[in-house]
Amino acid sequence: MSHPLRTLIEAADRAITAEDFDAVTEFYADDATLVVKPGLNVSGKPAIRRAFEAIAAHFNHSLKVGQGDMVVLEGADTALVLMESTLDAVAENGADASTVRRATFVFRKDADGRWLCVIDNSYGTDLIGAV
Amino acid sequence: MSHPLRTLIEAADRAITAEDFDAVTEFYADDATLVVKPGLNVSGKPAIRRAFEAIAAHFNHSLKVGQGDMVVLEGADTALVLMESTLDAVAENGADASTVRRATFVFRKDADGRWLCVIDNSYGTDLIGAV
Q1: Could you say which of 3.30.450.20, 3.10.450.50, 3.40.50.1460, 1.10.10.10 is the CATH number of the domain covering B4-122?
Q2: In this predicted model, what pLDDT tens digit does every residue of A64-109 receive, in sequence order?
Q3: What is the CATH number of domain A4-127?
Q4: Closest partner residue to A78 among B30, B74, B108, by Cβ?
Q5: Which residue among A34, A114, B78, B103 is least packed, with the fewest CB closer than 10 Å?
Q6: B115-121 and B28-37: which strand pairing?
């Protein structure tokens, strides 16, 4: 059986691919932080929603997000997810912008036992030296 | 000015190098998780203390831990630290066991505003495919 966080991330990625941004923001805590690109972080659901809208436009609405291997580490009602994240996309100039990242996501269990994303960093440790 | 978490991690690494395991465990939340090696995780201060004792013995008490570049991402009273971690050590057979890892640490702010480590994964995204 796959980890509940895998199921959750698969649903979030489907929402990103479908550009259902209301659904996307439901996966985040109110004061979550998203790394949009190295050096550019946004916090809070309204800013995260705007970032996903901008990312969708940047890729001419061609972005498809998928998942590869995944490791979940849990401690103190917190989970660190290490995951291969596949991005299939076409850039504005028509070039293939597909890539595979080794992402790092942090989730917290809320009072109702529901996992919410508090830090979304799809760049993983590649941010070291890039920021 | 460096981030308070850099100061904290430097102090924790000094305690590991000094084999002051009482001090080391003070940096962790009660139900924190430590990745000892790929596939072997331990949770809770007593188990974390025993793991550091075993690591010290494994390296014949030669382990010195240092810090390189660091990125801190904060969201919802949680921090994801991405950091180059330098390990200088001699293996039991006398060979140089020094290495540099791209570590991932998750910290939580407690009710008093104090940062405590909840997930310590010095292997970073290298765990993907290794577990």
Answers
A1: 3.10.450.50
A2: 999 999 999 999 999 999 999 999 998 878 889 899 999 999 999 9
A3: 3.10.450.50
A4: B108
A5: A114
A6: parallel
